[in-house]
Specification:
- The chain is α/β, with parallel strands linked by helices and 298 residues long.
- It has a single domain, classed as TIM Barrel, CATH 3.20.20.
- The chain has twelve helices and eight strands.
- The chain has an eight-stranded parallel barrel with strand order 1-2-3-4-5-6-7-8, surrounded by eight helices.
- Strand 6, helix 8 and strand 7 form a beta-alpha-beta unit.
- Helix 2 runs antiparallel to helix 11.
- The longest helix is centred in the middle third of the chain and has 17 residues.
- The model has no long low-confidence stretch (mean pLDDT 97).
- The structure holds 3-hydroxy-3-methylglutaryl-coenzyme A (HMG) and magnesium ion.
């Protein structure tokens, strides 16, 4: 076991993962209001939108309008998700400084989510990364279904390691491992990581756990023993992939920050202001705040 890291980089994905699955229309103003409140709370890494097909995810159709209202030179690391050359073109036109690309360790999920095989998705990523790298835009990678798939069931850890390695080889500075449907448990998560970390060093790995079955914090704690220092989370526990049957919200950022504070691990985030961001977006949308910690900070 490695010592826990002294500080952890939190990537709040609520404006993208959190909102993409919400059926009611979320206004551009509400999205920007959420992003502003996150940065006021000290969140320096925010995934703000996706440039995917609006036919596939209508909620993200206003991504360029969201970007237009942000100061892209204010030191905050704003990332956007891009699936193909068209998406990266739209993102680069907005002047983004980071993109995120995504593949998966499951063939069926990749088909449902991006209409192609894993190999094809890696070819697409290779193609879309070229213009990004030419323009010095940082690229982060995602691998979905690392602890199980809603269609294919169990996923081999070797496949997770292979797809992660492929993304690193293509130029991703970090790969975030997605438990897309929140199906993992701590020992399973550790076994998966043992395999991944036999190929890739811990400083290139992030954790992106959905909390469908209430296991996300336990899984994170287990994985932090490996010295991983990058965690994705979503304020108010919003989130879910429309193409992953049964997926629900990401682990809540408030719950993660509370746990890390209790462990003496620095995040640079003000918990009260973070909770206020969660209350803001859930009240604007009239939906339940799924953060346990957020719910006790009014
Ligand atoms: P397709 O239908 O096979 O592609 O979709 P296509 O090239 O035939 O395009 C269909 C239409 O979309 C065309 O328009 C394209 O121009 C347009 P038409 O000619 O019919 O008018 N189009 C686009 N428009 C704007 N921006 C684009 C774009 N691309 C095509 N970038 C495609 C293939 C990959 C585009 C589609 O499957 C797609 O957009 N998938 C994204 C689905 C998605 O966003 N899923 C959620 C994000 S992943 C996730 O949540 C998991 C994660 O959180 C990690 C985890 O939890 O594990 C990251
Ligand atoms: Mg996700």
């Amino acid at each position: 076991m490695t010592a826990y890291p002294e500080s952890i980089r939190i990537v709040d994905v609520s404006p993208r993962d959190g909102l993409q699955n919400i059926k009611q229309n979320v206004s551009t103003a509400d999205k920007v209001g959420l992003i502003n409140r996150l940065q006021q709370a000290g969140v320096n890494n925010i995934e703000v939108a996706s440039f995917v097909s609006p036919k596939w995810v209508p909620q993200m159709a206003d991504a360029a309008d969201v970007l237009a209202q942000l100061d892209l030179n204010n030191g905050i690391n704003y990332a956007v998700l891009t699936p193909n050359l068209k998406g990266v073109g739209r993102a680069l036109d907005c002047g983004v400084n980071e993109i995120a690309v995504f593949s998966a360790a499951s063939e069926s999920f990749t088909q449902k989510n991006t209409n192609c095989s894993i190999d094809e998705s890696l070819k697409r990523i290779e193609e879309l990364m070229r213009p990004a790298i030419e323009q010095n835009v940082r690229v982060r990678g995602y691998v979905s279904c690392v602890l199980g798939c809603p269609y294919d069931g169990d996923i081999a850890a070797e496949k997770v390691a292979d797809v992660s390695q492929a993304l690193i080889d293509l130029g991703c500075y970090e790969v975030s491992l997605g438990d897309t449907i929140g199906i993992g448990t701590p020992l399973k998560a550790k076994a998966m990581l043992d395999t991944v970390l036999s190929k890739i060093s811990a400083d290139k790995i992030g954790l992106h756990f959905h909390d469908t079955r209430g296991q996300a914090l336990a899984n994170l704690l287990a994985c932090l023993e490996y010295g991983i220092a990058s965690i994705d989370a979503s304020v108010a526990g919003l989130g879910g992939c429309p193409y992953a049957k049964g997926a629900s919200g990401n682990v809540s950022t408030e719950d993660v920050v509370y746990m890390l504070q209790g462990m003496g691990i620095e995040t640079g985030i003000n918990l009260e202001k973070l909770a206020a961001a969660g209350h803001y977006i859930t009240q604007q949308l009239g939906i339940t705040n799924n953060s346990r910690v957020g719910s006790v900070i009014q």
